[in-house]
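Troubleshooting: if your tokenizer reports a length mismatch, compare your output against this known-good record of 355 residues.
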Amino acid sequence: MAVKHNLTKRHRVITVGPDTKGLGGIASLLSTYRKLWSDITYATSNNRHGTLPGLFLWLWVMIRIPFYRLRGYDIIHAHGAVGKSFIRKSIILSWGRLFGFKTIFHSHGGAFRDYAAAVGESKIKKILHRCEAIVALTAGWQKYFTETMECPVVRVVNNIVEAPETPVERSLLPEGRPINFLFLGKVCENKGVYDILKALTIHRDWFEGKIKVTVCGNGEFSTFVSKVKELALDSMVHYAGCVFGKEKDALLRESDVMLLPSYFEGLPIVLLEAGVYAMPSVATDVGGITELIENGVNGTIVKPGDVESLAEAMRSYIDDHNKILSRGREARRIVADYSPDAVKDALQRLYDEID
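Known-good structure output:
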């Protein structure tokens, strides 16, 4: 059982974000925060059960903010993405400033650049500039918020990943055992999950009998399952639904390589999870991924939408099982910077800085 420790020793912080029992990277991240740190005061700004319950929760946060201030809370740290998520958080932060809160917007949106361009960069700048600090997931995103959005205080706070209680010990795969690839994420076009099916269809002769792809997540699961049947890929592809807890732990242990051929990303939690389970990843050069995955070191990088390169990357692990071991070891070493202790220190420095 994890031992809880203090995070906000000198500050009283309200952490705002989505329902931590829901799906998605932000929910997973904040669920880990709450698990590890006893003094997290968490305010849920939406609800996994739908828009109307989410609206009530959002209003409940707004009602409580002045009372939090009377109780000595001084910082609102809001985690959000784009679209409705950004709008909800920006209203909460504006409301909090009226009562003297210092505010932080923690950006998780892999499509934030496109969102700002569509809405209007000047409009988004005005919202961001009212915050005492912006948190970015990577150095690349820090550069964007500093240079393009001209935010004066932008700090990188890594996403967090917790190592499994029982360490993973991997060995060379038995001869003839199929390579287990794993996709964890929203099942949709932007995550590149259909590119996996295209790669398997085009190069069926490469992969038949040598590969198993397990896909887990919410989203267009019925469409995806129908597509698998239509392409007669049932022998290679299995949709396992949404996985949590012990089921997820077992799946990560049984898998050999993580697949994430996304078109948009911030810094995906699933790639960090792959690292702590000593798995290499096949991913795309979008968002902050290349600041975590170094091609040929702890995984393989391909261009989004490049089905041929994706197929070649997958095949390379089939042809050389040693890559799974060596790159998996490197993946575990690299994610040490994303440990709870490292993230706690970064958050504490941020709160001290804006005090």
